[in-house]
Amino acid sequence: MEISKAELASAAAASAGNQSQELTGAEVLVKALQAEGVNYVWGYPGGAVLYIYDAFYKQDTIQHVLVRHEQAAVHAADGFARATGEVGVALVTSGPGLTNAVTGIATAYMDSIPMVIISGQVPTAAIGLDAFQECDTVGITRPIVKHNFLVKDPKDLAMTMKKAFHIARTGRPGPVVVDVPKDVSFKKVTYTGYPDKVEMRSYNPVRKGHGGQIRKALQLLLNAKRPYIYTGGGVLLGNATNELRTLVDMLGYPVTNTLMGLGAYPASDRKFLGMLGMHGTIEANNAMQNCDVLLAVGARFDDRVIGNVKHFAQNERKIIHIDIDPSSISKRVKVDIPIVGDVKDVLTELISMIREATQKPDAGALADWWKTIETWRSKDCLKYDRGNQDVIKPQYVVETLWNMTKDADAYITSDVGQHQMWAAQYYRFDEPRRWINSGGLGTMGVGIPYAMGIKLAKPESEVFTITGEGSVQMCIQELSTCLQYNTPIKICALNNRYLGMVRQWQEIEYSGRYSHSYMDALPNFVKLAEAYGHVGMLIERPQDVEPALREARKLKDRTVFMDFRTDPTENVFPMVKAGMGITEMLLGSEDL
Ligand SMILES: Cc1cc2nc3c(=O)[nH]c(=O)nc-3n(C[C@H](O)[C@H](O)[C@H](O)COP(=O)(O)OP(=O)(O)OC[C@H]3O[C@@H](n4cnc5c(N)ncnc54)[C@H](O)[C@@H]3O)c2cc1C
Ligand SMILES: Cc1ncc(C[n+]2csc(CCOP(=O)(O)OP(=O)(O)O)c2C)c(N)n1
Ligand SMILES: [Mg+2]
């Protein structure tokens, strides 16, 4: 019989509970992390956390990774969490350490990523006195965390950590900050073991969906003439890709993923219509607008998906919405059948109801619906100039990478901008948790730290970062961390010499007034990579794209920075302009 990690953790907790010990708060903190099964912590030291760093020094089960900037510590732990499904842990000092971490915390919060961020704080007696490196961590992080704690007594540390991990990973996941004043980490306390249970009267997330609601949903789904399954990050967060696959196979209905859901359903399957939304495919967006029954699964009707809400409401459709967070339901779009619960539990119940049902989907109506969808699909909206031999098309780099690695054990991280959208459109993700990017906050700079976090957890896998020359400079210092911890990643920079996504908006929405979107004086990335101890490559011709990628992959143990000089004028299409409806798409430069 296999023993789960959680069981191991609670066994460790129970045995630790047998003997009480006098420990410092910092030592209790480390024991808590060990009991939670934590193997990696990304962090950066400073005065307020030196007792914690001292406690790390005296143990050898947790590897601490010293980053070069606290923002990257949080991103790396976040990338680790996205790829593994475990809670990512970061450690920062008080004041500037915490404020540097804020972007990372907000990024994780917007995409519902389970994390625990431990921050140092000035001693309790100094709080509120403008002490050296003091900041109001609880106040600053309140709007960007699922929960936060200020620990005032070392006696509370173990239970606080237990709660922090529990809150981070249950219900709608999210980051939890634990702020630890220096005296709390220094004082001794009698440690009687890590708690094995946690109860919070005010926090009891629902897992099981309401049976009556699921039955109503089933009825609607079976009576549908133009059904559509719209799935998001919640399917990945809830580890429900198998259930989704079973459901879609049983019903034969078309399915789409949001940017955050890519990989939740295999992109190579014909029933998949591609990503929907602002840069979604014609078929995915038209199906969203024209369906008569919409099953939304772990997706939150984001503005980049729905576009103009009034336009979306012009067509009548019944909406079923499965989401673990009641506050996500009817937030932006009114739904008809809300089902609050965990996507895995709810889909399992729905599947068993479908199995028992005598009624089957309306095959005739479904065939007509598929015919309509195929006419949209035949427009081949992701076509681009593949024959161009003068300049590297950015889409070609992504497509080539996909062709080379589709059967490999590969993870793709990205930064934010046009390159992110091309990665989402042209790399066809068949498996969950392989596509790691920032959707909700859209944080430039995540690409390298995400890759670094994943590579540590998955040393045998290939990890690629698709980035832009703008984004990559926001956390480029982490190339140094990659060398120190031997996390060889492959960076594919689609270098268009522009803040391309900004340039695209300026071309389309601001009559070509390119205000501060051109990057002059870029560094020599090849030399920069070499200066950090890595390999740099400059690729300027389309025919060199594939050989460069091949060579980089061969250099298994090296971090390689590939500087692809791509077409500076290329835009991301389809595109729904701000304020437009999701079917009002620009399909190419001829539409401008
Ligand atoms: C430049 C740029 C362009 C973008 N363009 C697009 C675009 O064209 N198309 C697009 O889709 N997005 C796009 N985005 C991303 C967009 O901003 C949103 O991040 C994204 O659409 C949200 O995805 P989601 O609805 O899957 O929600 P997520 O943020 O992934 O939220 C998940 C939902 O699932 C729920 N959930 C979590 N766990 C569970 C569980 N166990 N059971 C049930 N429910 C659960 C949560 O409560 C939440 O409501 C773009 C972002 C950027 C930066
Ligand atoms: C931290 C941060 N600042 C600003 C932005 C706004 N922004 C979105 S995309 C983009 C341009 C990105 O440029 P680059 O990395 O070169 O990618 P490209 O669009 O050219 O592919 C900017 C500035 C952002 N998303 N994040
Ligand atoms: Mg660029």
From TrEMBL:
Record field: catalytic activity: 2 pyruvate + H(+) = (2S)-2-acetolactate + CO2
Domain Thiamine pyrophosphate enzyme N-terminal TPP-binding: 24-139
GO molecular function, one term: acetolactate synthase activity
Cofactor(s) essential for the protein: Mg(2+); thiamine diphosphate
Gene3D superfamilies attached to this UniProt entry: 3.40.50.970, TPP-binding domain
SUPFAM superfamilies in alphabetical order: DHS-like NAD/FAD-binding domain, Thiamin diphosphate-binding fold (THDP-binding)
Keywords attached to this entry: Amino-acid biosynthesis, Branched-chain amino acid biosynthesis, Magnesium, Metal-binding, Thiamine pyrophosphate, Transferase
Domain Thiamine pyrophosphate enzyme TPP-binding: 415-563
Note describing how the cofactor binds: Binds 1 Mg(2+) ion per subunit.
Residue ranges constituting the Thiamine pyrophosphate enzyme central domain according to the UniProt record: 214-350
Listed EC numbers: 2.2.1.6
Involved pathway(s): Amino-acid biosynthesis; L-isoleucine biosynthesis; L-isoleucine from 2-oxobutanoate: step 1/4; Amino-acid biosynthesis; L-valine biosynthesis; L-valine from pyruvate: step 1/4
InterPro entries hit by this protein: Acetolactate_synth_lsu (IPR012846), AHAS_TPP (IPR039368), DHS-like_NAD/FAD-binding_dom (IPR029035), THDP-binding (IPR029061), Thiamin_PyroP_enz_cen_dom (IPR012000), Thiamin_PyroP_enz_TPP-bd_dom (IPR012001), TPP_enz (IPR045229), TPP_enzyme_TPP-bd (IPR011766)
Pfam families in the record: TPP_enzyme_C, TPP_enzyme_M, TPP_enzyme_N
PANTHER family noted in UniProt: ACETOLACTATE SYNTHASE CATALYTIC SUBUNIT, MITOCHONDRIAL (PTHR18968:SF13), THIAMINE PYROPHOSPHATE ENZYMES (PTHR18968)
Family, as annotated: Belongs to the TPP enzyme family.
Protein name according to UniProt: Acetolactate synthase
Organism placement in taxonomy: Bacteria, Pseudomonadati, Pseudomonadota, Betaproteobacteria, Burkholderiales
